[in-house]
Design a protein that fits this description.
This protein is an alpha/beta fold and 469 residues long. The protein contains 16 helices and 10 strands. Strands 1, 2, 3, 4, 5, 6, 7, 8, 9 and 10 form a 10-stranded mixed beta sheet that branches. It comes from Pogonomyrmex barbatus.
């Protein structure tokens, strides 16, 4: 990984004349100098802003809460930070993966608790680690086709209290007991209970289609691409180091402090960022494939509690309300491939596809925000993108995609260090992209992530003229 980091290309962009292009936003075909619309029938859709709770390791300060509490806080914080009237929100799309049965449509429940209008519909989506990407793009679709003007998208995950069920045999007995009419019937059911009935039905940690855990798949992927343990540890150290620097410099401005009830200290920062030494990382034992695997607790993302939310709307509506967007939401695509051998290769498929769709090249991208499930997954995707054989065999391209400028890649850290609450990560990636476009004076940003089931996403954002953080 280190040679890749050292040899990355330095890309320089020209300065865009935003004052000139802003006056013609309403009808110009795609153009690398400044893209506005690909078709006059579609609206410009903008990303106004995004927020999130601090991302915490599961079992820490949030452990006595519900996912609902974090989701509500993200929605309350978004409205307070941006200052929009809650009544202007036409629709809410919220993501979650590990669903709490009491709040199955958590988007609706959290919105009501956050004081949004009872007349604002909401639904909840799930697409594994790209659930809030799906929430954002669902909102894009609703706005693009003219159904709504203003959508809030977000996601939450709460790994401190995952749903654990009784075994299926016990559930069956309980349902029968509920229907039993006589005492003898109920006693007969009670007498049929055996010790095996009490074995809980735990949430699956393996892919349903393959029966393999993501960690085992990640180890196999790293081995297939020749990713060494040192490359993975070096990448993990890079992620934590960059995240620590961003945190110290106040760049993680999307974090909205949370006051946990009955706890004096306010939670105001992510708590999983830890900068270790190479020697400390090297001492850790494999977490999945023992004793020869290369994925460890330190070079994998950790179980995380957290929530996020973002405001997206038509540009026209934002200007009517006097809001200043941070970025345009330009293009998106979803991909899927073999969930056994290519479970975590979503970015390798999504990145070239979205670049082609947007008529952009690697050199046009000034900000890269890529989900880090495992350091080995990131390294494998970079090697896949730099492989002619992979491009020809799997992407049906004549030559390799190439390696992005890694100086612009996850410059504020990523999921390995900041944390990865499954359904909340997509909005975090989008918000960091928008903020980095402004802070680093870049025009285009690319978001990509892998997800369970062998799926992935690619998204393009473009800095809004004169945007500020």
């Amino acid at each position: 990984m280190i040679p890749l980091l050292k040899n990355c290309l330095v890309v320089r962009h020209g300065i865009v004349n935003y004052a000139e292009t802003l006056t013609r936003y309403s009808g110009i075909s795609i153009n690398k100098a400044y893209s506005t619309k690909s078709n006059n029938t579609f609206k410009n859709i903008v990303f106004v802003d995004g927020v999130r709770t601090p991302f915490l390791q599961s079992g820490t300060q949030y452990k006595n809460l519900l996912a609902y509490d974090l989701a509500r806080h993200s929605l309350v914080s978004l409205q307070r930070k941006v200052g929009f009237p809650k009544e202007v929100v036409d629709y809410i799309v919220y993501g979650t993966v590990m669903q709490e049965v009491r709040t199955s449509n958590i988007g609706r429940e959290a919105a009501l608790a956050a004081g949004y209008s009872e007349h604002t519909p909401a639904h909840t989506v799930t697409m594994a680690c790209i659930s809030s990407n799906q929430a954002i793009t669902t909102g894009i679709g609703l706005i693009a086709c003219g159904v709504y003007d203003t959508v809030v998208a977000g996601g939450v995950e709460f790994m401190s209290d995952i749903p654990i069920r009784h075994s299926r045999s016990m559930r069956s007995l309980m349902l029968q007991a509920n229907k039993a009419k006589t005492l003898p019937n109920k006693l007969a059911l009670l007498a049929s209970i055996r010790p095996g009935h009490f074995i809980p039905d735990l949430p699956a940690v393996a892919e349903f289609s393959s029966g393999e855990t993501m960690g085992h798949s990640g180890d196999r992927l790293a081995a297939a691409f020749g990713v060494t343990r040192k490359e993975q540890d070096d990448y993990a150290l890079r992620s934590h180091t960059l995240a620590a620097q961003a945190q110290q410099q106040g760049l993680l401005s999307d974090v909205m402090p949370y006051k946990v009830p009955n706890v004096d200290k306010v939670v105001d920062r992510d708590n999983g960022i830890r900068v270790s030494t190479e020697e400390q990382l090297a001492k850790l034992k494999p977490a999945f494939v023992k004793p020869y695997g290369t994925i460890t607790a330190a070079n994998a993302s950790f179980l995380t509690d957290g929530a996020s939310a973002a405001l997206i709307m038509s540009e026209e509506k934002a200007l009517q309300l006097g809001l200043k967007p941070k970025a345009y939401l330009r293009n998106f695509t979803y991909v899927s491939q073999d969930p056994v051998d290519q479970l975590l290769l979503g970015p390798s498929y999504a990145i070239p596809k979205i670049l082609d769709k947007a008529k952009l090249t690697l050199k046009d991208i000034g900000v890269w925000e890529i989900h880090e499930a495992f350091a080995g997954q990131i390294c494998a995707n970079l090697k896949a993108m730099d492989s002619d054989i992979f491009a020809q065999k799997y992407l049906k391209r004549s030559s390799k995609v190439g390696i992005p400028d890694l100086k612009k890649w996850n410059a504020w850290g990523g999921s390995l260090s900041i944390g990865h609450p499954f359904a909340a990560t997509g909005v975090r990636l989008a918000t960091h992209t928008a903020n980095r476009l402004i802070k680093e004076d870049q025009q285009f940003g690319l978001i990509s992530a892998c997800a369970a089931g062998g799926q992935g996403v690619g998204m393009i954002m473009e800095r809004y003229p004169d945007a500020t953080i």
